[in-house]
Fold this protein.
Amino acid sequence: MSDAHNNDEHGGELATVGPIADPGLPEHQWRPTDVDPAKEKRAERQVAALFGLSAVCVILFLVSYFTLDIGDNWHVVAGFGASTMALGATLGLALLLIGVGVIHWARKLMGDHEISELRHPARSSDEDREATVNALTVGIEESGIARRPLIRNSLLGAVGLLGLPAVVLLRDLGPLPGKKLYHTIWGEGTADKPMRIVRDGIWTPILASDLEIGDLVNCQPDALHNPERYDIDPTEVEGVNLQVHKSKASLVLLRMDPNDIKPGKDAKGNSRENWDVQGIVAYSKICTHVGCPISLNERTTHHLLCPCHQSTFDLADSGKVVFGPAGRPLPQLPIAIDDEGYLVAQSDFDEPVGPSFWERDYYDRW
């Protein structure tokens, strides 16, 4: 180094400083629980008590859920109702107590050793990896979870009970559907009053003679507009009930050359030869993938395309999937003509409409 570099701006000389010595780790300070067995046992009981209190809070949450109504007129703090306060406080305390218990366990009872580690490349060497695995093994042993059954069992009990609020809160998603997913209002028609197929939105019945080859019509059951005709209580097709029925019963009609139709088999293995009328077929409008409404028609191929994820169904071949993520064909509705020449449903769909669900039993039609 030149003299210019050895002098500072005031003319003084700069001393050459070598590497800073490693100061090492400070002397280890033993915790009271490390040297006093009585304090160790007391800390263990404290941790277990925190976990136990968490379990009690979960039980109080369940009691509050089933005993306090949302519509209670008495309030607790800042206008919040008793139900809201009780559920929030008990569930919050349950989670908090588990967190405090784990922290207390780590600070008082788990291994307490000062360590230092040099920086290393992104990928550790095999020796470091092996040392890390060994350190984790030692850490598990030093945590005492194997030799402290009181803490282990109380923690497992507290964490296990935390699953109950999640299960109970599923009730708030609404009543279970039961068998409602398996049936639609199309099945309300009878032999003397078969359910008419009407145009969606304008509710006019459809004459088979009015449809030409290539025509696609969006339809609904007549019962949604004229419930009395089918001896249905009008209140069953109002408000939310109306939307539920429409979401399940939405239909598309397509007329094609009768020679293009390849009749499949129904759920009982019987032929579907009598399910169409003069080349007019009827299928659910609800995609079997995730339930999007579909009506994009490829006129020359008789394919119906879902705009959401491009699932494509062949309406000339039992609604089979020819492309896309849908796993099941579109359900087909058997149709006929009544005495006045209007299109009617012979019966309900022979399988659930819409996307799959876990209780759905499906037969192989391929």
Remarks:
- The chain has two domains: 32-116+125-173, 180-345.
- The helical segments are 3-6, 32-35, 37-67, 82-108, 126-143, 149-161, 163-169, 239-249.
- The domain at 180-345 is CATH 2.102.10.10 (Rieske Iron-sulfur Protein).
- The CA atoms of residues 178 and 359 lie 10 Å apart.
